[in-house]
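Support reply, case 0932

Customer input (verbatim):
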Amino acid sequence: MELTERLIRHVADSAWGTRQFTLANGQTVDFGSDGQHFPRISFVDVLRDEFGIDVFNSPIEDISAKLKEHNLEVEKQDNRNRGLDKLWKKYRKSLVGPAFLIDIPTFMQPLAKVQVGRPELTEQFNLVFGGSEMCKAFSELNDPIDQLNRFTEQQAMRDAGDDEAQMLDIDYVEALEYAMPPACGFGWSERVFWVLEGVTAREGVPFPQLRSEYDDVTRGIYPHINLK
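Our regenerated output:
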């Protein structure tokens, strides 16, 4: 997180000569002085303090009731993940930032390692400003058993109608079986700079089509998984 703070300040200084920006939505973002840390915002705390929701124990009925109370769409196939995400985005919309979102539940992030001593939460942070998440970073999950279990849970949600759930990527799991060194992922896109410039843009990212057939070796490794 400290590296991200230094990085965005360096870019702001070098490209624009200022750390204060007025965004198209009317919000003013100030990236502050060197050594000044952005606030840390806990996903768990936000849902509890702002909406009275326990992310681990509140039933879907309570979450759906909160969605209705705040005039948020309640879909036919809403699950806990999507409901919690909608409530967070409701709060995020008014968040000027910059701030770091932390304490994201493991069941909402299938690709990140868990926190040491707190397996219900992931080692992840998202940079938030201007009401949007502009950067995501996390420790990459390199345990193939854990990864397969999470993919299986995500695929079940997808089969139930959640289009945003992760697809089961058995090729990735098989690759992890051969070992993967400790790694972290960090990503932000041109969108960060479009926002700071006040430019409207539509970005298209092509993804290659996943293969639809699996060989006998892969099926033999995972006989208990229904590979379609």
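We compared this against your earlier run and they match. Two observations from our side: DSSP finds eight helices and nine strands in the chain. Strands lie at 20-22, 28-30, 40-42, 99-102, 114-115, 118-122, 124-129, 132-139, 184-187. Please reopen the case if you see a mismatch on your end.
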